[in-house]
Amino acid sequence: MGEPSPHGPSPPLHNPPSTPLEAQMADTLTITDNRTGTQYELPIKDGTISAIDLRQIKTDSDDFGLLSYDPAYKNTASCRSAITMIDGDKGILRYRGYPIEQLAENSTFLEVAYLLLNGELPNAGELSKWENEITHHTFVHEYVIRAMDGFLHDAHMMGKLVTFIATLSTFYPKSKAVRDKATRDEHIVKIIAKMPTLAAWCFRHSTGRPYLYPDNSLSYCGNFLNMLFRMGEQNYKPNPILERALNVLFILHADHEQNCSASAARAVGSSEADPYVSLAAAAAALYGPLHGGANEAVLRMLREIGDVKNIPSFIDGCKNGDKRLMGFGHRVYKNYDPRAKIIKDLAHEVFAVTGKNPLLDIALELEKIALSDEYFVKRKLYPNVDFYSGLIYQAMGFPVEMFPVLFAIPRSVGWLAQWQEMLDDPEQKIARPRQVYIGADERDYVPMDKRG
Ligand code: ACO
């Protein structure tokens, strides 16, 4: 019958609960198979039934057993996780129990990274050791620069980043020892440390500027801004407001439980592939316009709309299915994404330094109209994290192609936390979904001269 149930065996129910009240009070689900009249009692744990418990429901001994069918995992929990909690109806997001609003206001990105990976906020000594470790692994092998020159000048920055995350796997073959905690910790540090360097080099290649090496005297975000934007200055000092804004954006993007890219990291990592290729797969998933590529798509959309007067016809296009309001809607949030609220406020602080992004007026009007339009209200479509982040990135001087790269840097922490948790979870195995086969039945090979 395949894998055992994590809850132990659940035999067919021969003595079903005698009264409706008794049935209501048990932490079980009673199923009657109307094909056979047999009743089964399945345990309910943490608001779930185990899909493997359905396998015992058969019409006869040749029957494979019942499967659950859930394309796109809309109602399937794939793991138990203690990292990130989202209440999509209430618009709540917490990392390890801490509300995202408190972390964004009080923390640094590296402090949040420590929290996500280790489960607790670091004390002063732990934080300084962690920051020191990350700071001293920021340099990347020179061969990456040589390889960079193999790309066309207009290659997409995210395409390059995905490639170079995977390339690091070839520099660190020992990272394949994924069951060894010390090895894992070593490469977690390396990845978090090197992501900004890789990202900055992808940017410098695209913009034709010379590559810069990390400056270990700067903060994580300060050093990143330095590698991106320093040209001839002797002592580059990042603008503290922009440095803090990047910190907040990185905190908000650090993890988001079982999204498309985290699921990719877990699925690829479940074959015990090394963390670099597992994260390259996650970054590839993030690249898509329905996921991390959405912030880029929002900017392109705002440019296409071009003027507030064109909003009504754009909204009509969304309603008749010709267009999609990028930066709106979410699989989990059926309320305002709490990250979008923080980013909207942050935008004003950034614009005070950079000057207002002229697309802001279109975004604000679009949001106002969409939030009062029956189509969006009925479907509970609210702004998500990507709706305003692109406006900030653009005002800070980033080209749109850099937006998903800016998402991937902090999200690498979430991918690593999810990957590590998956490897330590005794209930996890290699990810391998089932299918419902709907193709042809067995048939004989047809020679070429007999085919129509
Ligand atoms: N604009 C217009 N209509 C939309 C939008 C949108 N942005 N999002 C959903 N809808 C409509 C759908 O057409 C569908 O309508 P219907 O019931 O009449 O068929 C209904 O709302 C439900 O939408 P689904 O596509 O079933 O929702 P799903 O959970 O599969 O998709 C997704 C979620 C992919 C985020 C979707 O809302 C979307 O494409 N949004 C735009 C892209 C975007 O901003 N992505 C970033 C997400 S956040 C992140 O990944 C970091």
Write structural notes for this entry:
With 452 residues, the protein is mainly alpha-helical. The protein has 2 domains: 1-69, no CATH class; 98-422, Citrate Synthase, domain 1 (Orthogonal Bundle), CATH 1.10.580. It has 18 helices and 5 strands. The strands form 2 sheets. The protein has a 3-stranded antiparallel sheet. A two-stranded antiparallel sheet has the order 1-2. A hairpin with a 4-residue loop joins strand 3 and strand 4. It is globular and about 80 Å long. The two termini are 42 Å apart. Acetyl coenzyme *A is lined by residues 290-292, 294, 318, 324-331, 379, 381, 384-386. Acetyl coenzyme *A binds at residues 290-292, 294, 318, 324-331, 379, 381, 384-386.
**Beta fraction:** under 5%
Rg on CA atoms, Å: 25 Å
From the coordinates shown, what is the CATH architecture of the largest domain?
Orthogonal Bundle
Bin the helical content. 40-55%
Overall morphology:
globular
Oligomer: single chain
Count up the domains.
Answer: 2
End-to-end separation in angstroms reads: 42 Å
As residue ranges, the low-confidence spans are 1-11
Largest sheet: 3 strands, antiparallel
**Spatial arrangement of strands, main beta sheet:** 3-4-5
Annotation, overall tally of beta strands: 5
Structural class: mainly alpha
Could you spell the SSE succession in H and E letters?
HEEEEEHHHHHHHHHHHHHHHHH
- Regarding CATH, which class of the largest domain? Mainly Alpha
Bound molecules: acetyl coenzyme *A
Number of helices: 18
CATH superfamily of the largest domain: Citrate Synthase, domain 1
CATH topological fold name of the largest domain: Citrate Synthase, domain 1
Report the mean per-residue pLDDT as an integer. Answer: 93
